[in-house]
Design brief:
Strand order of the largest sheet: 2-1-3-4
Low-confidence stretches: 1-33
Structural class: alpha/beta
Shape: globular
Number of helices: 12
Number of strands: 8
CATH topology of the largest domain: Rossmann fold
CATH class of the largest domain: Alpha Beta
CATH architecture of the largest domain: 3-Layer(aba) Sandwich
Strand content: 5-15%
Mean pLDDT: 89
């Protein structure tokens, strides 16, 4: 368990890319490209994280604001961050992703400014949008670091965007903000996860002569949040259904590529909240113990629910799950997250180009795998509701 807030699909340990701030190019409106019209800026919106010990508690208080969680409980969670020097890896990962996205935009000849705003740490989303307006930007498309569909991985981002715009409206700042669709089954995300799992399974098979069991892992959320994930006129459970569908697809594709049956199952990490509240299960540590009891000796753990190796990965998997595997004598290989894989980065830019064409009223072909139905760019009424309090959300029809 990493934080008391469920953040299912956020951004790796330092990626080896020298962190750089993105080039925003706000100085001269004449220099801006119109390749993504009607948008004159792209903003990467992420969860954020502390970058030093003094930032840990303020960060956790922001994350849990309004939930009545005492500082004593937050102090327990803070120890996970202090285990890594009080610094979450997420902001460095965002800098690396921004650099990779900028390079891909430049490679395509797209000069549209690329910005960055966090929900819970600097650079704060509201400040980024304010600076965008001061630079003459008026229409922004948001790329979130969260691929799946539920309240905390989609609507909460939309609520934060709406709150930022509401705050800026009091300053006579007017901006239009849209976002790309949730991309769990865009090939740039799903196919990359499949390739990474297949490569890891191949390595284990060649090294040991045994095909490993694959454990796909994502952030657990309360059962009630999963039950209401998806549009209000559907049955819910979209969050877990998306992960299960990708897990099955990964196993099928890996089996076809390797010429031998690959078995994959879904497990969860980062459960928080009171013990009386049901959350999605099984926990990854419990699942590893179950596999060991079945005689499994080699496992490949794939964090398909995450964009990069932020705290839920480096603590919950690389620390806690690794300790469990070592205790059991399991040979555990942890698969990389999509991070700044060129195919994933290219997919994010494809999604941005797709959204701009859609905004211009053009017919758009939306690639989707697995399951041929892509998520809509504009969320439908009642989608992934806030179960604690009704709040306005932008980028949707409610």
């Amino acid at each position: 368990m990493t934080t008391p807030a469920a953040e299912p699909t956020e951004p790796t340990e330092p990626t080896g890319v020298e962190p750089q701030e993105p080039q925003t190019e706000l100085e001269t409106p004449e220099s801006r490209g119109e390749e993504l019209a009607p948008y004159d800026a792209v903003v990467l919106v992420s969860f954020g994280g502390p970058e030093g010990p003094d930032e840990v508690m303020p960060f956790l208080r922001r994350v849990t604001a309004g939930r009545g969680i005492p500082d004593e409980r937050l102090a327990d969670v803070a120890e996970h961050y202090h285990h890594f020097g009080g610094r979450s890896p997420i902001n460095d990962q965002n800098r690396a992703l921004l650099k990779a996205m900028r390079e891909e935009l430049d490679r395509r000849g797209i000069s549209t400014p690329l910005l960055w705003g966090n929900r819970n740490s600097e650079p704060f989303l509201t400040d980024t949008l304010r600076e965008a307006h001061q630079g003459g930007l008026t229409n922004v498309v948001a790329v979130t670091t969260s691929a799946y569909s539920c309240y905390s991985s989609c609507r909460q981002y939309r609520e934060d965007l709406a709150a930022a715009l509401e705050e800026l409206a009091f300053e006579d700042v007017s901006l239009n903000v849209h976002k790309i669709r949730q991309y769990w089954n865009h090939p740039g995300f799903a196919a990359v996860n499949t390739r990474l799992v297949t490569e890891a399974a191949r390595e284990v098979k060649e090294r040991t002569g045994v095909m490993p069991r694959v454990v796909c892992v994502t952030h657990s959320i309360p059962d009630a949040m999963d039950d209401t994930s998806g549009p209000g006129d559907e049955d819910g459970n979209l969050y877990s259904a998306q992960h299960k569908a990708l897990t099955v697809a990964i196993a099928d594709e890996a089996s076809a590529t390797l010429g031998e049956t690959v078995t994959a199952e879904l497990a969860y990490c980062s459960r928080s909240g009171p013990p009386s509240q049901p959350w999605l299960e099984p926990d990854v540590n419990d699942h590893l113990r179950e596999l060991h009891s079945q005689g499994v000796q080699h496992v490949v753990v794939a964090p398909i629910g995450f964009v990069s190796d932020h705290m839920e990965v480096v603590f919950d998997l690389d620390t806690e799950a690794r300790e469990t595997a070592d205790e059991l004598g399991l040979d555990m290989v942890r698969v990389p997250t999509v991070g700044i894989d060129p195919e994933f980065v290219s997919g994010l830019i494809d999604l941005t180009v797709e959204r701009s064409a859609e905004a211009r009223g053009q017919d758009v072909v939306k690639p989707a795998w697995p399951i041929s139905e892509p998520r809509p760019s504009t969320c439908r009424p009642g989608c992934c509701p806030n179960l604690r309090a009704a709040k306005p959300a932008c980028c949707g029809m409610d």
